[in-house]
């Protein structure tokens, strides 16, 4: 089974053995997403499974530390330092209104036509009834709540 990439300078802190199997599963899903054939898809669509796993892995670390308080601060900071979890995405999740944010490209205004947020950031109550939206950048179906 593939291991999570981490530096060999310092051994992981206590509690690593509890989260390592789950992180290995995420790594396996990431490899499957990379190896998945993407013929007939747009170029950006082939990256959607990878961004989904990246978000799930970061959410797992976030939930363990902030919601369930199951890991220590030392282990949390180790995961951020080793880039197992995305520190910028977690920082946004701590802010009000961004709790369900899927990826950082949804809030970047440089990639949109009118320098606004992505369509998935519009609340579902403000959209037409029965209209299904999907983000062009990451494939999420609405991360505004």
From TrEMBL:
<dbReference type="GO" id="GO:0005681">
    <property type="term" value="C:spliceosomal complex"/>
</dbReference>
<dbReference type="Pfam" id="PF01125">
    <property type="entry name" value="BUD31"/>
</dbReference>
<keyword id="KW-0539">Nucleus</keyword>
<dbReference type="GO" id="GO:0000398">
    <property type="term" value="P:mRNA splicing, via spliceosome"/>
</dbReference>
<comment type="similarity">
    <text>Belongs to the BUD31 (G10) family.</text>
</comment>
<protein>
    <recommendedName>
        <fullName>Protein BUD31 homolog</fullName>
    </recommendedName>
</protein>
<dbReference type="InterPro" id="IPR001748">
    <property type="entry name" value="BUD31"/>
</dbReference>
């Amino acid at each position: 089974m593939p291991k999570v990439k981490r530096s060999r300078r310092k051994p992981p802190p206590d509690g690593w053995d509890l989260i390592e199997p789950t992180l290995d599963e995420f790594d396996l899903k990431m490899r499957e997403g990379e190896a998945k054939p993407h013929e007939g898809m747009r170029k950006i669509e082939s990256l959607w499974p990878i961004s989904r796993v990246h978000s799930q892995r970061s959410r797992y670390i976030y939930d363990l530390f902030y919601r369930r308080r199951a890991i220590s601060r030392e282990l949390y900071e180790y995961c951020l330092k080793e880039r197992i979890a995305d520190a910028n995405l977690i920082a946004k999740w701590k802010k009000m209104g961004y709790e369900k944010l899927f990826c950082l490209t949804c809030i970047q205004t440089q990639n949109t036509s009118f320098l606004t947020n992505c369509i998935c950031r519009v609340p579902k109550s403000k959209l037409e009834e029965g209209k299904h939206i999907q983000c062009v950048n990451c494939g999420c179906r609405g991360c505004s709540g």
